[in-house]
Amino acid sequence: MGLICSVCLYSSLLLLLLPPSLLLNFFFSSSVFCLLSFSLCYLVDGGELHSSGYHVIGADLRNLSAFQAKLASVGVDQGLPTLFISECVLIYMEATDSDQILKWISGTYLTAAFITYEMIYPEDAFGQTMLRNLESRSIALRGIHAYPDLVAQKERYRKLGWQHSEAEDMFDIYNTHTPKPELQRVARLELFDEFEEWELISRHYCLSWATQTSPILLEQGVDLHQAVHFPTHL
């Protein structure tokens, strides 16, 4: 399986491509991208990082043809099942720009999954405060009004050609899909009593994901949707 990660502000892309056998840990911060691997051969070119095992490349996602060319330049195999991870990326773009990427992927990769983490609910009191705070730093969430809630997040993928899509806010993910032993372990780390504030914040962030599986795999009884959904019983 291929892996494509994007971590960015506004509409740039930091892209990571891995072969199935490569063991890799990766850590992200606002200004540093750190790669730890067993590969010892690197080629740094204009801020990009290349080796025989992976590639880190940059592209302007608003320019779809340039993005496609970047992927082709490092030999991305569109026939492989591919996982796309977007952490607060699409929301910084105009919806028309992010939509064209999702539509292109759904029409190009026969077997793929796309996972997005971003903000929701801009119209309530907390959401408006969040937007004002970001705007005071000259940061605009250009896509948040196009897909402001969980229903819109799910419909976004389906209208752009994906077979399946789901979305949940982080509060429900934490409480419903986190194993109980882990919840108990975290609770013991530090006394925490600001539950109302925690729920308010986590309700305004969500994970949404979409999948599609090639007809050949479906005939073999393999459905990627079943491989990436959250368990319902813990």
Can you walk through the features of this model?
With 234 residues, the chain is an alpha+beta fold. The strands form three sheets. It has a five-stranded mixed beta sheet with strand order 1-8-9-11-10. The model is unreliable at 6-42 (pLDDT under 50). The chain has helices spanning 64-73, 95-108, 125-135, 150-159, 170-177, 180-189, 195-202, 215-219, 224-228, and strands at 2-7, 12-17, 24-28, 33-37, 43-45, 48-50, 55-60, 82-87, 112-119, 164-169, 205-212. It has a single domain, classed as Vaccinia Virus protein VP39 (Rossmann fold, 3-Layer(aba) Sandwich), CATH 3.40.50.150.
H/E element order = EEEEEEEHEHEHHEHHHEHH
Task: Estimate what percentage of residues fall within beta strands.
Answer: 25-35%
Number of strands: 11
Going by CATH, what is the homologous superfamily?
Vaccinia Virus protein VP39
Largest sheet: 5 strands, mixed
CATH topology: Rossmann fold
Overall average pLDDT: 79
Q: Indicate the CATH class.
A: Alpha Beta
* Helix/strand/pairing category: alpha+beta
Shape: globular
Any idea what the radius of gyration is?
19 Å
Instruction: Detail the poorly predicted runs.
Output: 6-42
Oligomer: single chain
In the CATH hierarchy, the architecture is 3-Layer(aba) Sandwich
